[in-house]
Amino acid sequence: xxxxxxxxxxxxxxxxxxxxxxxxxxxxxxxxxxxxxxxxxxxxxxxxxxxxxxxxxxxxxxxxxxxxxxxxxxxxxxxxxxxxxxxxxxxxxxxxxxxxxxxxxxxxxxxxxxxxxxxxxxxxxxxxxxxxxxxxxxxxxxxxxxxxxxxxxxxxxxxxxxxxxxxxxxxxxxxxxxxxxxxxxxxxxxxxxxxxxxxxxxxxxxxxxxxxxxxxxxxxxxx
Amino acid sequence: xxxxxxxxxxxxxxxxxxxxxxxxxxxxxxxxxxxxxxxxxxxxxxxxxxxxxxxxxxxxxxxxxxxxxxxxxxxxxxxxxxxxxxxxxxxxxxxxxxxxxxxxxxxxxxxxxxxxxxxxxxxxxxxxxxxxxxxxxxxxxxxxxxxxxxxxxxxxxxxxxxxx
Lengths: 223, 164
What we know:
The complex is a heterodimer of chains A (223) and B (164). By secondary structure, chain A is mainly alpha-helical. In chain A, 89% of the residues lie in helices and 0% in strands. Chain A has helices spanning 2-42, 50-64, 70-121, 127-159, 166-222.
């Protein structure tokens, strides 16, 4: 009888451990799996499955509606392998550009937000600056989206079987060129917005702050 | 009624409550019990209670009756504690796992610490017109670190560059 009780209590104890342990392990499993999903979804440009690659190439072909002549196809098939070697080098540079851009734009927003907080604490109206910070963030977000597509297009170009489907290679190349052009323009627009709009607002706020500081010092002297 | 209170079963379980009995106190199970001692002094002690007589069919002699009563005294506590050990171990493990779960949830859901730890008073004291000049200079410096023409050159993907 005692042995039965012991066996039952032991079984119950292990059941308790399993009941608590399984959710814990499941939680950690979810964490890691979600990390992997994040890595896959937030890193376009990385190697993807053949099905995904085929779908993207087909989508670009459908969008551009390219029709190459036989001579153009033959020329591409003969030269695209060498071009893919150079595209791999471009792909490597893109990674470095992405890192430096993210850092620079992050610093811009960080400096401006910090200044806005300080000015608010001083009683300065920062609504104009805050609105411009939001607009800057939207432009930076658009840049990042465009950059992700550029990165993916170049990665597809370097990865695909260009000899088997020269039209898809040409379509991906045209897509990458389009994104490069847009990125160049978007980067310049961000720079222009900061230097010509936000810095003007900073100059106005500086004058307001200086006037307020002068008023306060005069009041102190009068007192 | 008095005789029922001094039955052997109660005597062995609560030996300190039976000083009036002229009976040898309970001895360990290994010590042999003499059947003539209780019977000579107080016959009522050795006579098992009526209910015990009904339940224990194997007790035919006084010695065997006393042995069967005394044996649990030494062994029962261990048998009661033995099943508790895995329960305590399981509870400890379950508690540790629960703490790990709670801590992990707290870490994943914890908001990022505020970057600006200054109090409003400190921030107010820190900001001056020169602060805005500094921020403006930092912005220029940050923008100077990137160049669209070198990052996204026109000929980066040209047919000539790629050898197409």
